[in-house]
Structures are given as structure tokens and as C-alpha cells.
Design goal:
The chain is of the alpha+beta class. The chain has two domains: 151 residues, no CATH class; 87 residues, Serine Threonine Protein Phosphatase 5, Tetratricopeptide repeat, CATH 1.25.40. Helix content is 36%, strand content 28%. Strand 1 and strand 2 form a beta hairpin. It is elongated, with a radius of gyration of 30 Å. The termini are far apart.
Length: 281
């Protein structure tokens, strides 16, 4: 009986610990996703409210760097390179910091996007882009901090921050024409070495037309300046399956030499096993 009481007590205690009351966050998190041209942009931030307070020059002091949101740092992610005020942001994620001012705001794109608040030790070397923006005043108050992307064109848009009676717009550009042109050039020039190689390996593994696989693999290898031992391994298997064991053996030996030089035991063993199977060892 005593044991049963202890078990029930332990169960009740565990339940009381795990059954926590969930309440709304004062500054709920939000995620904005928008495509501009061929660039995907994601902004993740928390949204504080005005709640009857004086915001800029009050809650958020002028001339002091602000995390531009609440809780964790506001982050912005670009799927391609982007340009802000003539400065290149490489594809990736950045923290978005601002310094509100009476006449102008400064906007910073900072590489260290993890953590909460402004870094205790601000590092200018982590600022990859900085721009100065003149804020606009609204004739009404917007209660909740809002980010949006407006003025969307083929290769440009504006990142908007709206809160209380203040709006700032940060123009940026994305390399849509460059991405499209590169895609056109690739397609018009025909398949590359990687495409031929992938198709050949697929045909080998799927048991499809091995003659076609051999043709594609030969084309791939002709486009690769120095094939890797793993690529030579696949070529040897295709040649063997196509009935050309003499060539398969020579290619496997080359793959084995490369694997031994790289110290890759898996490919060493696989090549040795194939060479033995084909009567070369």
C-alpha cells in the first residue's frame, strides 16, 4: 500500500510540473516571407505594441542602437546576394539593427544574427551594410511593430518598418537579371558534366540502357579536367556492365590509386573487390 501511495504521489508531482499554463506573449513572434524577382526574403521578428507609450525618443531612445523588435534579434535572410546603398549583402542571414534619430535613422545589417538584444561588444567589422534613412511620419498610430516589403519590382523593393507614427523605407536591389541570364546560358549551352554524370549513374543503378549510360559517362568525363576516384569508380562499373571489362579494369586501377592517395579505405576495398571479380587480382 505504501509503495502504491508513493507511485501515485510521484505521478501527481510529475503531472503538476509538466502541466504548465500557457499565456500569450507580450510581443508575439512573426515571420514574413516575400519573393522579389528570383530572391526569397524572410524576416523573423517579435512584435511589441505601443500600449499608450511614447515609442521613439521614449521607449526607444534616439541615437542608440536598437534590436529593431523585441525578444531575439530581428533577422533577415536573402536567398541570393542583395545590394543595400551600393553595398553587397551575400546570400545568408543577418541581424537587422537600427539607430533611430530625430532627423535620420541608421540601419545596420550585422552578421551575428543569433542572440537577444544589441551585442554587449558591438563589432563594426560585422556590419556588412549600413545606410541612413529619413523617417516619414504617419497621421495616425500603428499599434504593433510591422515589417513589410513594398514597391516590389523585378530587381528591387523596399524594406519597410512601421510602428506608432513612424515609417522608414530601406531600398534594396537583387540580381534578378544576373540569375536569369545565368540560367539561360546554362540551358542554352546544354547539359554540363554534372548532369551527364548523374544521368549515367542513375541509369546504372536503375538497370536501364547501359549503352546510353556509358555514352553519358564518357561525355561527363571528357568535361571534367581531373576526375575524382569516386567518379572513376562509377565509370568502371558502367564499363563492366557494358561488357568492356578490359577498360573497366584500367579505370578501376586508376580509381584505386586515387583512393589510396586519399586514404579512402571504403573505395580501396570496393575497387579491390571489383578487380578481383574481374580477374585482375
Amino acid at each position: 500500500m505504501k509503495k502504491l501511495v508513493l507511485i501515485l504521489l510521484a505521478f501527481t508531482t510529475a503531472y503538476s510540473v509538466n502541466a504548465q499554463i500557457e499565456t500569450p506573449q507580450p510581443s508575439p513572434s512573426s515571420k514574413l516571407e516575400q519573393r522579389v524577382g528570383l530572391t526569397d526574403i524572410t524576416i523573423e521578428y517579435s512584435r511589441p505594441g505601443v500600449k499608450g507609450r511614447k515609442i521613439f525618443g521614449g521607449l526607444e531612445a534616439f541615437d542608440k542602437i536598437w534590436r529593431t523588435g523585441a525578444n531575439a534579434r530581428t533577422s533577415i535572410t536573402f536567398s541570393t546576394d542583395a545590394t543595400v546603398d551600393g553595398q553587397t549583402l551575400e546570400a545568408g542571414t543577418y541581424a537587422l539593427f537600427t539607430k533611430p534619430g530625430v532627423e535620420t535613422w541608421e540601419v545596420y545589417f550585422y552578421t551575428d544574427y543569433k542572440g537577444g538584444g544589441v551585442p554587449q561588444d558591438w563589432d563594426d567589422s560585422k556590419v556588412v551594410a549600413k545606410t541612413t534613412i529619413t523617417p516619414m511620419e504617419l497621421p495616425f498610430s500603428v499599434e504593433t511593430l510591422t515589417f513589410d516589403i513594398h514597391n516590389i519590382k523585378k530587381s528591387s523593393a523596399t524594406l519597410n518598418l512601421i510602428w506608432d507614427k513612424t515609417v522608414i523605407e530601406v531600398p534594396f536591389e537583387v540580381p534578378t537579371d544576373k540569375v536569369v541570364t545565368a540560367g539561360i546560358d546554362k540551358i542554352m549551352s546544354g547539359p554540363g558534366a554534372r548532369d551527364y554524370y548523374a544521368a549515367a549513374v542513375y541509369y546504372l543503378e536503375a538497370g536501364k540502357d547501359i549503352t546510353k549510360a556509358k555514352e553519358w559517362m564518357d561525355t561527363a568525363m571528357s568535361k571534367i579536367e581531373k576526375p575524382g576516384f569516386w567518379q572513376l569508380r562509377q565509370q568502371s562499373l558502367i564499363y563492366a556492365k557494358a561488357g568492356d571489362k578490359k577498360a573497366a579494369i584500367e579505370i578501376a586501377k586508376e580509381s584505386l590509386a586515387g583512393a589510396e592517395k586519399a586514404g579512402n579505405s571504403a573505395y580501396i576495398n570496393m575497387n579491390k573487390a571489383s578487380l578481383k571479380e574481374w580477374g585482375a587480382m
